[in-house]
Amino acid sequence: MTIAEQIAGKLNAKLNYIPKTAQEEEEEKEEPKKTTFRKYEEELEINDFPQTARWKVTSKENLANIQEYSDAGVTIRGTYFPQGKEPKEDEGERKLYLSIESTSELSVQKAKAEITRLIKEELIRLQNSYQPINKGRYKVL
C-alpha cells in the first residue's frame, strides 16, 4: 500500500466515507437519470378588450419583448368574437386568449404582469384621449 492510499484511507475513516465498488458504479451508469420538468401554464383572455389594447399586446414586437423579459412562451390562441356573440363550446371554439407557458412559475407571473401592464397602459391612454364624435355636420344657429 502506498503512502497516498494510507492517507486516503485515514481521511475516509475520519469522514465515514465508504468507497463505491466497481459493480455499484456500473449499475449507476446503466440507470438513466430521471429528471422531471415541470410546466407552468396560464391563460389570459383578451377577447373583450378594445381593439387597440388587443393589438398592443399581440404585436410581434411586444410579444418578443415579453418573451425575452420573462423567459416564458406566449401564444395567441382562440378566435375573436364580437360583443354579444358567444363561441360554440361543442365545436371547441374559444374566445381570443393568450397562452403563457414556462418551466418556472416566476416566468409565467412576470409575463402575465407585463401583459396586464400593457393592457392597462393602453386602456388609460384610450380613456384620456377620448374625443366625442360630432353627430351632425352642420350647426343650427
UniProtKB/TrEMBL annotation:
Ranges of Basic and acidic residues composition bias in the record: 30-39
Keywords: ATP-binding, Helicase, Hydrolase, Nucleotide-binding
Chain's role: RNA-binding protein involved in pre-mRNA splicing. Interacts with the PRP19C/Prp19 complex/NTC/Nineteen complex which is part of the spliceosome. Involved in regulating splice site selection. Binds preferentially RNA with A/C rich sequences and poly-C stretches.
Entry keyword Oxidoreductase: no
Annotated GO CC locations: nucleus
Disordered: annotated span: 19-39
Name of protein: KH homology domain-containing protein 4
Coiled coil: none
One Pfam assignment: KH_12
InterPro entries, per the entry: KH_dom_type_1_sf, PRP5/DDX46/KHDC4_KH, RIK/BLOM7
Domain ATP-dependent RNA helicase PRP5/DDX46/KHDC4 KH: 41-122
CDD domains registered for this protein in UniProt: KH-I_DDX46 (cd22473)
